[in-house]
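User: Sequence recovery, please. Input:
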């Protein structure tokens, strides 16, 4: 957690809720789970997708919005690979509060959703190219 997170968050509306979630997810959970945090969050995301199967690309977008994860759009779609772009206030808020926020929960969710929709094996990775967006790449077998 950044030392000046409170100052960075003051420019966002609804910063208390966002800060609380960032504190729990990127602070406390990472400390408790230690080196296993990324793997556990990825598989937790897959389990969330199993429980809340959206069935459509629109459903994925609606779920991300409802979960407070941000605004997600598919940016390219090929037979064996899809790229998704995650933006919005949630990304900006987490980036203001956390040095390197983890998006493994979202990656796991996205991988499982695409797997359920395509009936093919999937894996998902991500990169955060700046403080306002995250790019997910879903690899489809």
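Assistant: Recovered sequence (141 residues):
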């Amino acid at each position: 957690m950044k030392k000046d997170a409170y100052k960075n968050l003051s420019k966002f509306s609804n910063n208390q809720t966002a800060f609380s979630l960032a504190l729990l997810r990127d602070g406390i959970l990472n400390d408790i789970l230690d080196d296993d945090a990324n793997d556990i969050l990825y598989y937790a995301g897959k389990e969330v997708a199993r429980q809340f199967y959206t069935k459509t690309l629109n459903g994925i977008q609606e779920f991300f919005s409802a979960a407070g994860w941000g605004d997600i759009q598919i940016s390219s779609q090929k037979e064996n690979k899809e790229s998704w772009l995650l933006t919005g206030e949630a990304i900006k808020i987490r980036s203001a509060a956390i040095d390197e926020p983890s998006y493994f929960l979202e990656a796991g969710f996205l991988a499982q959703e695409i797997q359920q929709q395509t009936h093919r094996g999937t894996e998902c990775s991500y990169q955060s190219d700046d403080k306002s967006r995250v790019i997910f790449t879903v690899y489809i077998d």
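The two ends are 37 Å apart (CA to CA).
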